[in-house]
Target: Beta-glucosidase
Amino acid sequence: MNNSQTYTFPKGFEWGTATSAFQIEGGGKQDGRGPSVWDTFCEQPDRIRDASTGLVACDHYNRYKEDVALLKSLGIQTYRFSLSWSRIFPNGDSELNEAGAAFYDRLVDELLAAGINPAVTLFHWDLPQALEDKFGGWTSRETSKRLGDFAEWVGKRLGDRVDRFFTINEFFNFTERCYGIGHFAPGRVESRKVMNQTCHNGLLGHGYALAGLRASAPKAQVGLVENIKPFIPVFESEENILAASKAFREENGRYITPIMEGAYPDSYLEAEGEDAPTVEAGDFDIISAPTDFLGMNIYTGDYVTHSDEPKGYEIIKFHETYPSMSEPWIRIVPDSLYWAPRFSAEHWGDRPMYIAESGCSARDFIDEKGRVMDIERVLYLRQYLKGLHRATSEGYPVKGYYLWSMMDNFEWCDGYDTRFGMVYVDFDTLERTPKLSAKFYSETISQNRIV
Ligand code: GBH
Model:
């Protein structure tokens, strides 16, 4: 059988899994950690579906050794985690908290000893509350600069042992959703002008972080992670493929175009008019400095058909009966993992790519034998990986895949009953139990093909 029949991945393809600090660490008040905007947000009424907080979460802060051993037992090759900025700098920008910083030394060393390649995300939404208080968080470019300083510190501290860094995770979810819609921490609903400015400051934050890491860890590979919106030709006629390609570029314009192309798309500037962000001289040089790779988080996608309207495409609305996972926003669109890498490569060149997150929530339950037989997740993963396999077998340079998530964790506003893990966590005892999907993934890794 040839590779396409066995779904074998290229030699050296890296299989990983991902988490983020606030979602798993807990240890919220341990060893001098300062609060982040998410700590504050969780204390407010009606913000989190189950009224939970991140104070304990998976208690990974105290159980990291057990967790690394678990990763090793599953054969995980690379582990993407994020840093709790306020654990390291409780005031946001001054006074290093050495006890907090030392946690990440221990974690990195433990991973390396287990033969697992650490991949560090600098910022996954848990902004130090102090920066919100001092500068108004992402409404100010002071915050962007502080991320640059933090990055430089991180490169100095971890750059001798970590060679893959992601600057930020998903712009929308720490800018618009936080300062425009008000649905994520710090929960502010500001004017459109201010909201657009947070987007710009987020981009600048990425740029400053990239520069900081380049200065202190010149050998490391650095990129960012964006929640790229995939667009899938509803069937693969030439005109539908062209339509989906147009949709991809147009609908991802706001964040990724300035990074890739050094300017906002005209359509964005026209649509926002006076509410467009204020851009200072030199900003786009910082924002569009070359990265080594593009990280993409992909959970779902949209189908596109050709349209005779001037823009040339139509995004097809989903009927409510379209299959989705336990969270209704996760519509099952496996070809997303093919078309997003392909269109990224076609529009922005053949730079290496990582699927920095992909996975799903499912209604997991423990059966009478103490097992979690999450067949929905296994089916979801197998289908999506087939999409990804098509991308690698056609030569698109996707170098690795990080399954979201290593274990059930704090799913932001949805709290703890929305489970994304391949490992089940009992949030009373904090016991970890690998699900059926973990066995599937482990076997896939060991054979480097979809089993
Ligand atoms: C990623 O965000 C995150 O990086 C990760 O932290 C998170 O755990 C994971 O995905 C799973 O959500 O209820 O319709 O308003 C993806 C962005 C933000 C998408 C919250 C879903 C809620 C949708 N997610 N959002 S809705």
